[in-house]
Amino acid sequence: MKVEKVTDHIVKWLKDYASKAGVKGYVVGVSGGVDSAVTSTLCAMTGLEVLCVEMPIHQHQDHVTRAQEHMIQLKNRFDNVDDVRSDLTTVFNIFKDQMPSVTSNPQIELSLGNTRARLRMTTLYYHGGVHGLLVAGTGNKVEDFGVGFYTKYGDGGVDVSPIADLLKSEVYAVGKHLKVPESILKAAPSDGLYGAERTDEDQIGASYDELERAMHQANKNIPVETLSAREQEVFHIYLSYNRKNQHKMNPIPVCVIPKDLL
C-alpha cells in the first residue's frame, strides 16, 4: 500500500465531502484505539474544524489515558482541533435502572454493550448538530464489511466512513505514518464496551490478521480443504459472523407493495 498517497487521498476526500455538504468539519468519538486515532488525525489534516469527543461509560483507565494522550498530541499538532468530554456513565446507569432486570437472560450483557454504543452515537450527533459538523465513523474494512463487528445505530451510525476501505493492518500502517502515539499502536484492539480485559480477539475468537486472511480466502473462493486446521477454524468464525451480520451491511429491507394493490 502507498501509505502517503492513501493518506492524502482520504484527507482530500474528507475535505471535498465537507465542502459539498456545506459543513464546517467533523466530530469524532475518540476511544483510545487506533481506528479513532487515525480517523481523527485524518480529519485534522483537512484544516477544517474538528471536535474530538471522549465519552466514557465505566471506562477502564487504560482507555481513558490513551484517549487523552492522543487528544493532547492532536491539539498540539493542529490548531483546528478542539476536544470535549461527555461522561455518559450516569446516563447509562439511569437507563439501565429503568429497564426490567432479567439476570437469567444471556443477551442482557450484549444489549447493554450495544446501548453504550448507541448513547455515544446520540452524543456525537448532538455535538455535530450544535457545531455544524458531520460525524466521522471509525470502522475499518474487516469490522464493517467482513465480520460486522460494530453496533447497528451505534458506532455504525455515522455520516462518513473515511477508513472503511482499509484493512486493520492498513489502518496501523497509516497510523504509524501519521505518528499516532505508540501506546495506541501497541494496545490490543478493544471496543471498550465490556472492560479493557475483553479484547476484540477475545470476543471474536480470532485476531484481525487472521480475519484478514479469512476475508481474502472467502473473496478468492480458496478451497477450505487446502487450509490449515487453524485457518479452517478462523474461516468458519469469519463466515459465521459475516452471515449473521448481513443485516448491518445491507440496506434496510423495504416491503415493496405490488402495483396492483395500490
SSE map:
Layout lengths: L2 H19 L3 E5 L4 H11 L4 E6 L6 H17 L3 E5 L3 H10 L9 H24 L1 E3 L5 H7 L20 H10 L4 H5 L13 H5 L3 H12 L9 H16 L1 H4 L13
Parallel strand pairs: 1-2, 1-4, 2-3
Helix pairs in contact: 1-7, 2-7, 10-11
Structural summary, described in words:
The protein is 53% helix and 7% strand. Strands 3-2-1-4 form a four-stranded parallel beta sheet, sandwiched between helices. The longest helix has 24 residues. The chain is globular, with a radius of gyration of 19 Å.
What's the quick description here?
It is built from 12 helices and 4 strands; from the N terminus they run αβαβαβααβααααααα. It has 262 residues and is an alpha/beta fold.
Sheet/helix structural class: alpha/beta
Instruction: Provide a count of the helices.
Output: 12
Contiguous uncertain segments of 5+ residues: none
Gap between N and C termini, in Å?
Answer: 52 Å
**Helix coverage percent:** 40-55%
Q: What gross morphology would you assign?
A: globular
Order of helices and strands: HEHEHEHHEHHHHHHH
CATH class: Alpha Beta
Quick check: average pLDDT? 95
| Rounded Rg | 19 Å
